[in-house]
Specification:
Elements: H1 3-25, H2 32-45, H3 47-54, H4 57-69, H5 74-95, H6 101-120
Helix pairs in contact: 1-2, 2-3, 2-4, 5-6
């Protein structure tokens, strides 16, 4: 992998870690989704950062469980779906100006795909 690509992947990972860390504090901003994206980016670029994030108890707790078991709790699934609905709705209804039907449609479609993906993930058995 070229050095420029590696730097871009690391940059994406770091950005997602920062957003995920903010999500720990700010209600409604998902942490797990951004941590999963960061883990994916670090897996492509930096084994050291990948291990660091995967072993971070604050940021990667839910993501690590998902990666190990392929399941999510009902609560986590509800939070992620709620965030998708909230942020897509805010973008479509309030942030984007009138018109821009193509962009609004793309946001809607990506939101639906995200929700369908989360719904297909098996529910973790409660202990």
């Amino acid at each position: 992998m070229s050095e420029i690509k590696r730097i871009c992947w690391v940059g994406l990972g770091v950005l997602c870690v920062i957003i995920g860390a903010i999500g720990v504090i700010v209600p409604g901003l998902p942490t797990t989704v951004f941590v999963l994206i960061a883990l994916w980016a670090f897996a492509k670029s930096s084994p050291r950062l990948y291990r660091w994030l995967l072993n971070n108890k604050i940021l990667a707790g839910s993501a690590k469980k998902f990666m190990e078991t392929g399941t999510m709790t009902t609560k986590l699934k509800t939070i992620i779906i709620s965030c998708i609905l909230i942020f897509c709705s805010i973008s479509i209804l309030f942030i984007l100006p009138q018109g821009l039907v193509t962009i609004k449609s793309m946001i809607f479609i990506v939101g639906i795909i995200g929700i369908l993906y989360i719904l297909h993930i098996p529910v973790a058995k409660e202990k």
